[in-house]
């Protein structure tokens, strides 16, 4: 994919965050700027404690930066949405515009696979279905489950799924409300290497097909073969490393 021809979907400009640690002030993020285009996977790597997950929470309206601008560009209304919001407005933006894939799926054991997705859609309607909303949601859920390789498993309980299948449900659920942005935080940490590779390829495939802007955080550079761009975070700063150099590092390791 040539991301330069695609519009920017998520823009982080000059993001900085500091925290008080006893009598000292510690810098978590230092003047971070990053644009992610529609249909692009940007891999973000770095050691534990480098600030990767903190940046994701800011992009997902889960935390506020001290400085900087975070903007999401809506595909439907062609509008710029300021993500520096809190409370109910932040929740509304997440429901309608941002999908988040956390390391732990946190799927609801009482619900079937299909119901996991339906619940997410209903949240988007603030607990009430719009006219024809249930039928539309069922169709959307079935299409997504087929796209992630779970056709035929719609009525299974979570306890009946493997770890890899649960990870696929996690991805499908994050896409249920047709977000512009997909934020992925270490989704394969608990999976074996083969299953982890399959889940990562799935995320890259749906990113390109559904034209979402994906920020994929991992400590395992080997999971990012096929990413459109890879950047490193070291001590709260982005290092815009070339894809080739990072790929060579993986091969050498």
From TrEMBL:
This is ABC transporter ATP-binding protein. SMART domains: AAA. CDD domains: ABC_MJ0796_LolCDE_FtsE (cd03255). Keywords: ATP-binding, Nucleotide-binding, Transport. It holds the Pfam family ABC_tran. PANTHER family: ABC TRANSPORTER RELATED, IMPORT ATP-BINDING PROTEIN. The keyword Transport applies. One of its GO terms (cellular component) is plasma membrane. Residues 10-252 form the ABC transporter domain. GO terms for molecular function: ATP binding; ATP hydrolysis activity; transmembrane transporter activity. It comes from the Bacteria.
